[in-house]
């Protein structure tokens, strides 16, 4: 039995994922919005980068899409529309745990930030890659092993390393294993939460190249979370800039990087050192952060 | 004052690793293989390389936090590897270190005032009132307040903690500061603040930095000279501007090519 995974494609006219007015708050403080009215979309086969500092709500947004928010938090309002090939457009926030579990790892996959901590140390990497294949596609025995081998080779690890435990691999290799796990079922949406932040620049360059190759080959939509504008410049099609839970600017890569409109985006870009060393660094003036400003007010304050 | 404040010659450091099944075997790993560097007075020397290339071992060996197998480290002409522990402790206040991880390098059970003042206490610099004054002045200089002295590390953000780490290193008025990836755990916006602070302090206090990093954009910004390390050896060294313009070794070329976002710049 061979499994042909590329037969179904989602409807081309609609975006792959569409967030509409998503807000997240702690259950005990429903008025304190950690993510405030966030809307953006991801096209089929394109990469949308979410950029922001720590605490801007970018990881929470990703977890909300996956339905992985902590019990302390609640989604108050908003829809997450996923364009599924088989079932049409579905609102992920309305699904029960069982149906979500069927989607996760199969149609929507995620790569986490820390390759050191997100693999199980007592299981071989081959087993961990195979887990979702067994669960979602029912692969077993020979078929499973050959699929695992081909996945490992796809991410540039020799197939015999399937028998290795995570501690026998380097950081870059572990992140490749994470990637192999996430693409195992050929998801139509891949969420990558700072997948290269913990890695060396040379390894980072390899991983970014690998991700963009896979994206093209599988026609995968990607939500890529990062705080590094250099990475954005390399892989993004569209960019969303978040600040204190709100989107302050969004647009195509060229629009946001070359012609930023919001003062916060400008300030953030001015912080990035350039490779030529010609630019003077200008740190963000945080004096206006002390009060309880919203993003719009902060923007005004920065103009002055 | 001589031109080179810190000179290291032919440093060798070997680690013995347990290997094989159940760790019965052992392999020798050369973390530093005949490494020589010169730190010019008042300048910044960047040490660049990927993880495992021996950058952090070099930093520790320069400060004699780890014993060397062979080689000499000359601080103002004096070989530190040969000093007795007491004499070494005296000299150490001139050589300080800023660590990579602002979350792990501050004792969670000590107040900021105690953390920053500990070096003054150990080296017996001034009475307690003077020490207090110095701590307050240093905290203010790095952008914290007097009230912060009573707080514990967990009350601060990553950037603020790194400021505490810098204050702790600089309160002794050292001449050489070794910064081991001081900004790699921080957001770009905070990174820019800390880099500017380090640069200002270098001017004010006539510091010489050894700056360890794997981010070549940061190195370009802060360093005057650089050495590129690969597998325990120095493969290239010289002025930052020269190496960026014409990298000779293939590994350096790879590193420069790996800088993200080279082609589109905002």
Element-by-element helix/strand order of chain B:
EEEHEEHEHHHEHEHEEHH
Give the helix proportion of chain B (percent range).
Answer: 25-40%
Return the structural class of chain B. Answer: alpha/beta
Q: In which order are the strands of the major sheet of chain A placed? A: 7-8-9-3-10-11
Number of strands of chain A: 11
Rounded to the nearest angstrom, the distance between the terminal CA atoms of chain A is: 67 Å
Taken as a percent bin, the fraction of beta residues of chain B is 25-35%
CATH class category name of the domain at 17-107 and 185-303 in chain A:
Alpha Beta
Strands of chain B, total number: 10
Report the principal-axis shape of chain A: globular
Overall shape of chain B: it is: globular
Looking at how many chains there are and whether they match, the oligomeric state comes to: heterodimer
% residues in beta strands of chain A: 15-25%
Q: Explain this structure to me?
A:
- The complex is a heterodimer of chains A (304) and B (266).
- Chain A has ten helices and eleven strands.
- Chain A is α/β, with parallel strands linked by helices and 304 residues long.
- Chain A has a domain at 17-107 and 185-303: Rossmann fold, CATH 3.40.50.300.
- The model of chain A is unreliable at 1-7 (pLDDT under 50).
- In chain B, helix 3 (112-122) crosses helix 4, helix 3 packs parallel to helix 5 (158-170) and helix 5 (158-170) runs parallel beside helix 6 (188-205).
- Chain B is an alpha/beta fold and 266 residues long.
- Chain B has a six-stranded mixed beta sheet, sandwiched between helices.
- In chain B, strand 9 (225-230) and strand 10 form a beta hairpin.
């Amino acid at each position: 039995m061979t499994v042909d995974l590329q037969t179904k494609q989602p409807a081309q006219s609609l975006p792959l994922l569409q967030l509409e007015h998503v807000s997240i708050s702690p259950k005990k403080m429903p008025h304190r919005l950690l993510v405030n009215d966030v809307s953006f979309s991801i096209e089929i086969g394109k990469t949308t980068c979410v950029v922001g500092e720590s605490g801007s709500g970018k990881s929470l947004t990703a977890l909300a899409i996956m339905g992985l928010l902590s019990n302390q938090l609640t989604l108050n309002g908003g829809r997450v529309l996923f364009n599924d090939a088989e079932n049409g457009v579905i609102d992920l926030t309305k699904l029960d745990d069982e149906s979500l579990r069927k989607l996760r790892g199969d149609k929507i996959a995620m790569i986490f930030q820390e390759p050191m901590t997100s693999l199980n140390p007592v299981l071989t990497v081959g087993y961990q890659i195979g887990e979702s294949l067994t669960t979602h596609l029912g692969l077993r025995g020979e078929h499973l092993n050959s699929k695992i081998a081909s996945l490992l080779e796809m991410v540039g690890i020799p197939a015999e390393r399937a028998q290795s435990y995570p501690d026998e691999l380097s950081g870059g290799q572990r992140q490749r294993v994470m990637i192999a796990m996430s693409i195992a079922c050929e998801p139509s949406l891949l969420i990558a939460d700072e997948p290269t932040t913990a890695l060396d620049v040379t390894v980072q360059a390899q991983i970014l190249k690998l991700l963009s190759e896979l994206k093209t080959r599988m026609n995968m939509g990607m939500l890529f979370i990062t705080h590094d504008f250099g990475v954005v410049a390399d892989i993004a099609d569209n960019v969303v800039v978040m600040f204190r839970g709100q989107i302050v600017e969004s647009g195509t890569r060229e629009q946001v990087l070359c012609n930023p409109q919001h003062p916060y985006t400008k300030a953030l870009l001015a912080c990035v050192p350039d490779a030529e060393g010609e630019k003077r660094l200008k740190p963000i003036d945080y004096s206006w952060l002390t009060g309880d400003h919203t993003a719009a007010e902060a923007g005004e304050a920065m103009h002055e | 004052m001589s031109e080179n404040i810190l000179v290291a010659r032919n440093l060798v450091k070997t680690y013995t690793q347990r290997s094989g099944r159940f760790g019965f075997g052992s392999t020798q790993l050369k973390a530093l293989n005949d490494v020589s560097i010169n730190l010019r007075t008042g300048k910044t020397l960047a040490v660049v390389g990927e993880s495992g290339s021996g950058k952090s071992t070099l930093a520790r060996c320069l400060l004699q936090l780890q014993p060397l197998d062979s080689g000499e480290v000359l601080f103002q002409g004096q070989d530190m590897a040969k000093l007795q522990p007491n004499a070494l402790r005296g000299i150490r206040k001139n050589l300080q270190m800023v660590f990579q991880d602002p979350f792990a390098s501050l004792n969670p059970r000590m107040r900021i005032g105690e953390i920053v003042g500990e070096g003054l206490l150990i080296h017996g610099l001034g009475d307690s009132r003077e020490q207090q004054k110095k701590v307050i002045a240093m905290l203010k200089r790095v952008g914290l307040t007097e009230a912060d002295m009573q707080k514990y590390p967990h009350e601060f953000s990553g950037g603020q903690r790194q400021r505490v780490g810098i204050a702790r290193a600089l309160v002794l008025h050292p001449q050489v500061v070794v910064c081991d990836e001081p900004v790699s755990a921080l957001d770009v916006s905070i990174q820019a603040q800390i880099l500017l602070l380090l640069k200002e302090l270098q001017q004010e206090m006539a510091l010489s930095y050894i700056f360890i990093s794997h981010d070549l954009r940061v190195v370009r910004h802060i360093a005057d000279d650089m050495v590129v390390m690969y597998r325990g050896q120095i493969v290239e060294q010289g002025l930052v501007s020269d190496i960026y313009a014409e990298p000779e070794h293939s590994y350096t070329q790879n590193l420069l090519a790996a800088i993200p976002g080279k082609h589109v710049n905002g």
